[in-house]
Each structure stands twice: as C-alpha cells, then as structure tokens.
Amino acid sequence: MQPLYTTMKFLKFILILFSGFLLTSCVTSKDVRYFQPSESLVINEEGLVPYNIPEYRITQNDILTLNIVTTPKGDAAQFYSSLNTSSSANNPNITGVSTAGVGSSSGNASIYFNGLKVERDGDINIFGIGYIKAEGRTIKEVSEEIQQKVNENFLDGKSQVRLSLGGITYTIIGDTETVGITGEKIAHKNTLTLTEALADNGGLNRTVDKTNIEIHRKLPEGIKIARIDLTRQDAMNSPYYWVQNGDEIYLSTRPKNLNGFGKDPIQTITTGVGVITTALSIYLILSRL
Q: Where exactly are the transmembrane stretches of this chain (predicted)?
C-alpha cells in the first residue's frame, strides 16, 4: 500500500502544479483583443478620434524621388545627365529623374543608384542646381526650394517639381503569423497605420504581446524608442500609431508562451498532459530501482 500511496501523493502534487500552470498561462480575451475601451481615449467634439499624424522630416541616408514636369518645349535636361533624361522619351511633357522611393534589397535597385541620397552632412546634390539642405526639413519645404531654383531657369508656371520618398519603408522583426514575413517592407501610400502594416503582413498570432509593441523611429536627431499598447483604444491617439518612413517595429513574445503554454487551451492541455505523463513515467522507473 505504501508504494501506491506514495504514487498517488506524487500524482496529486503534479496535478496541483499543472493547475497552477494552467491558471497562469492561459490567454484571455484581454490579451488578444485590439482596441479595448479606454477612458483616456481622446476624441473631439464630434465624437471622432482626431488624426495625430506626425509630419515626416528627412533624415540621413534617405533617398528621394525627383521629377520635374515641364511644357513640351521646356528644356529641363540642362539639370540632368542623358542617362537620367532618357526615360522621358515616351512622354515629351515630362523631363527629369524617374526613380522611386527609398533604396532597399526588397525594392527597385534603380532607386539606390539613381535617387537623390541625403548625405551625412544632410545635403542632396542636384546636378545643375547644386547642394540643397534636406535633413530635418519636410518634403514640402525641400520641394519648394527646388521649385524656386528651377523657376530661375524657367518661366513661372512652365514647370512643376515633384519630390517624394516614393512610399513608406518600414521593418518588422518578431513573431508574425505568416512564416518568413518579417523583414523590410514598402507601402506605396502617403499614410500607414500600425494595424494596417501588421495586417498587410499576416497579422499577429496569440503569442505576441500586443501590449508591448516597440517602435524605433528614425529622427534627424537620432533614434527614438517608444512602446504602444494595441489592446487599448487610446493607442490611436499616439503619433507612433502612424508608421513613418524608416520605422522598425519589434514584436515580442509573452514570457508565458515561451514554455509552450498559453497559445490556446488545447495546446495548453496537450502540453500539460505531456508533462504529467513524462514526470509520472520517470517517477515509476525510479521507484522500481
């Protein structure tokens, strides 16, 4: 009777231990639901969540897209090499560089080689115009200065400068639902929310800690590190809810999910039963020695 009593006592201990794991490792609705009601959510007098989109300021190593649109008789070629203006042959109304956004391994290689790179001193060098300060300024501010320089060579109203980043380049690192989805991404749009970026890349699984999404934002002064909680509605009030060019988005796994528990109830029970079975088997083998 003693061996049986000892076995039952050991089994009871394992069951109590497993119950503790079950209670502390299960994922609740508060862990996985997006935008749960928050008293600190800021809304305007019309009951709407106001946009809090920070204006992007150019930083070192950005690569800009520049196109100059002229009249059919305009001669913007004086600003550019024959290589850059050769692409205008198909459209006589457009003269200038035809490149795209920020250069990257996942983007068009011509962006890197033909775009206007912001150098370490913060300047861009436009052939025929010269150096223009870009770092710390908005796209609109730099575009207006280029337009002023171009107007010195063309009559007013005979040309238009179009300067842009060619999209929003960002990086996701961490535990996303789709395998191999992490890495550098380019969104060809003017604005992008954090939830849009995550949805475009397969969404988040239940092991990701939605309360602790870390954002590394590139600013002219350096890199700003911030955190955002996507389980709260007031996340929409944060300027980091809006993805900016160069953002790095880090997704961390909940500590309780690292041990194999917590992704869903079935997995938790299966893992727990496996632990009990293994422990009991080891105990029975040792008890017979």
A: 266-286
Residue 234 vs residue 10, higher pLDDT? 234
Q: Are residues 73 and 159 in the same domain?
A: yes
Nearest-5° Cα angle at 6, 3 to 9:
150
- Count Cβ neighbours within 10 Å for each residue of 162-188 and write b for 16 or more, e otherwise: ebebbbbbbbbebbbeeeeebeebbbe
- Are 149 and 189 in the same domain? no
111 & 184 share domain: no
Co-location of 84 and 126 in the same domain: yes
Tens digit of each residue's pLDDT (9 = 90 or more) over 159-182: 888 899 878 999 999 865 554 577
**Cα 275–281–283 angle (5° rounding)?**
100
The domain boundary residue, chosen from 147, 164, 181: 164
Residue 282 lies in a domain: no
- Report pTM: 0.72
Range(s) of the domain holding residue 124: 63-164
What pLDDT does residue 95 have? Answer: 39
Verify that 100 and 189 share a domain, yes or no. Answer: no
Contact call for residues 168 and 217 (beta carbons, < 8 A): no
User: To which H or E segment does residue 184 belong?
Assistant: strand 183-187
State the pLDDT at residue 208.
87
The bridge status of strand 159-164 relative to strand 63-70 is antiparallel
pLDDT in tens, 52-111: 999 999 999 999 988 887 765 555 545 543 333 334 444 434 334 333 333 333 445 666
Domain boundary residue, one of 149, 164, 179: 164
Judgement on whether residues 251 and 217 belong to the same structural domain of the protein: yes
